[in-house]
Design a protein that fits this description.
The protein is 25% helix and 32% strand. The protein has 130 residues and is of the alpha+beta class. It has one domain: 2-Layer Sandwich (Dna Ligase, domain 1). Strands 4, 5, 6, 7 and 8 form a five-stranded antiparallel sheet that branches. A three-stranded antiparallel sheet has the order 1-3-2, covered by helices on one side. The longest helix has 15 residues. It is globular. It starts with a helix and ends with a strand. The model has no long low-confidence stretch (mean pLDDT 90).
């Protein structure tokens, strides 16, 4: 089972239904992705609830007219086809103009802007736009 795709699907579905929060399965890569989403302002916060073992509670972020901040969310590198990129070609994965591409590098998960500044390439995980 692909934990990243499962997490992205749960977040996407919760944003569409207007849910305040969502539970996703715990993994180190999911925590790395959630750290970048929080730093870039796509989600409000995330925490580890005491009553749910191996789960992460993600608190979603909405703007003033109660529409979700996350407008577009898609997985790029899949378990059947891994996608890797150098720092020079990271921008080609953006379908939306003001989107953020998340990259798994040797220094952890980071946005494509940080990866370009630090001269890192890696596995292109997903794209998110507001």
């Amino acid at each position: 089972m692909d934990l990243i795709s499962d997490m992205l699907t749960r977040i996407r579905n919760s944003c569409l239904t207007g849910s305040k929060d969502v539970l996703v399965k715990f993994s180190k890569i999911n925590v790395g992705i959630l750290n970048v989403l929080k730093a870039d302002g796509y989600i409000h916060n995330f925490m580890y609830p005491c009553d749910e073992k191996y789960m992460i509670k993600v608190i979603l972020k909405y703007d003033n007219n109660q529409s979700s901040v996350i407008r577009f969310l898609r997985r790029i590198s899949k378990s059947s086809k891994r996608v890797y990129s150098s720092k020079d070609t990271l921008r080609k994965f953006r379908k939306e103009q003001f989107s953020t591409v998340l990259v798994s590098t040797s220094k952890g998960v980071m946005s494509h802007i940080d990866a370009i500044q630090m001269n890192f390439g890696g596995e292109v995980l997903c794209e998110v736009a507001s």
